[in-house]
Amino acid sequence: MTNSIKEMIDCAIFFEQAINTCLAQNTLAKPEPFFSEKLAKELPKILRGMPFKGLPCQTWKFQGCYVHQKPYVKFISQLSKNGNGRCELGDLLVLCRENDAGQERYNSALFQLKKVDEEGKEFQPNPKTNEIVQLELYSSWPDLTSMGGKSYCIQPHAPSPGAQYLFIHNHTMSPRLTLSSPKKSMSPDGIALGCYLSAFTQWQTGRPISPKNLCQGNSIDGFSKLIWDLVDYIVSKSKSIQRSFGDIMCFISDMREETDFGMNSSTGIDNNYGDNENDGFGILFIDMGND
To answer: Residues 73-107, buried b or exposed e (16+ Cβ, 10 A)?
Structure first.
């Protein structure tokens, strides 16, 4: 669906206003998981309560969920000393569906959150930590395995606009959220998250994925399968979202048996919900169009 420049701007303003409202409180001392939880749990509520004037021909639904665990993956690394690459998959997933006269399509975006304490200072992943392995994951998407033992062959082995660094400008009372594609040295002064979401909901950025029913069995679409397995697992572990299945039924109506994606906490691999309040992963669901 094509929209005018004015509609795109209105859509970006809509998202930015909601994000600013979501993060209006003093967040100076808050860790990164605080922000992913706010974006997954509080932002959908705010979006649902705001009048939307950007795309009047569409109906929009917003929902989210969050668990106090992290999805970790492992792969053969070219940058780690021993070749064992192990890092978190991200902090936040945004998943969008558009239903246009019965024709469905899906878009996805993974975000790795990073705090920026100084204005204008570039972020460089620390080569002595798994930050450099995280950069390798988002830059090359090698064949990888979840901590639950599932393998994914992802093509192409290259950066994607659907895997971004989300910088939290946390040196002011009202934090800004901006994006950068994965690089060895990243400027935190990129596109605002609201502008990205406007383009994302029009398929101008992000990483489109196949419908879930096309990712069964030995699917060659490794990234789509990775995202749907992750969604299945997070939803199955989120106590809050299980009371609101009707709002996201389009994403989970054909959910398979629970996928043991394998979540990792600071205390080791643990598939129980709520084991570490200082870690977490969130999903923001956006459903557009008429069923």
So the answer is: bbbebeebeeeebbbbbbbbbbbbbbbeeeeebbb
User: How far apart (Å, rounded) are the C-alpha atoms in residues 259 and 125?
Assistant: 31
**Helix 193-200 to helix 5-22 angle, to the nearest 10 degrees?**
130
Residue of 203, 216, 232, 279 whose CA lies nearest to 31: 279
Name the domain count of the chain. 1
- The neighbour count for residue 185, using CB atoms within 10 Å, is 9
Its pTM stands at 0.88
Phi, psi of 274 (to 5 degrees): 75, 35
d(CA 115, CA 55): 32
Q: Is 288 helix (H, G, I), strand (E, B) or coil?
A: strand
Q: What angle do CA 5, 92, 21 make, to 5 degrees?
A: 60
Phi, psi of 68 (to 5 degrees): -85, 55
CB within 8 Å of 141: residues ≥ 6 apart: 154, 155, 156, 157, 158, 159, 160, 163, 223
Q: How far is CA 165 from CA 8, 57, 138, 227, in A?
A: 22, 32, 9, 17
Instruction: Write out pLDDT tens, residues 112-143.
Output: 999 887 666 788 988 888 899 999 999 999 99
